Give the backbone structure.
Amino acid sequence: MPISVICDNNSCRKSLKIKDEFAGKIVECPRCGGNIRVPDYHLQQQFLEAEENIASRVVEERLGAVLALKKLGDPFGLPLIYDRVADPAPVVADEALLALLEGKEAARPFLARFFQEEHDAVRRLMKVADKRRSAEALDFICTLVEENKLSEQYVSEMVPLFARIQNRRALPTLEAIRRRYPNLEQLVQAAIGRLEHPESGVATLYKGVRPLEKLGKLGCLPVLLALLAGGVALLVR
Ligand SMILES: [Zn+2]
């Protein structure tokens, strides 16, 4: 039974059928010449058997992918995921990111796929990177944004996320975005400004307070103060 593999090289991704005598070995990709690890047939068999026990096909695919990702100590489960999970569920994306954060490098090409396909999972990944304050995850996201040709619309949605994460490590990526997408100049400039001067967040807050000043100029501020004083007086009683 031939083994299905997909070239690890993100710009190639050639799909191949390989004789099972090469299981667990490294072969050369006929298209790009890169090295391809051939999955171990027995491990694939384990995944297939695990999946056969699950009734729903959708659940089967997603669970199969999560199972493969959990086993990422060896990277052989990944080609199976590429083949089987046509529409990766967010749970699979999360699992892949967690695997990467645990140092399982084999999760990298899998996650890269979400970026290439401009999948909604990217927003989730940004959130996880933010929540965990994970420099590794942020570096990973930056690399992918710089390496992939993403649509302007998609990148414009990502720029504010970089600003929100408030990590200066994203600055070179924002500069790269600025060079590559001239139309996003203003948006990127604002994000860079926020990263370079986090205190500008205070200025924004202050702007929000301005209407109160205007009230003051109109003579309303004394009234407000009087009301406030009245409230305090009531509380003191
Ligand atoms: Zn290749």
Notes: The first helix runs from residue 41 to 52.
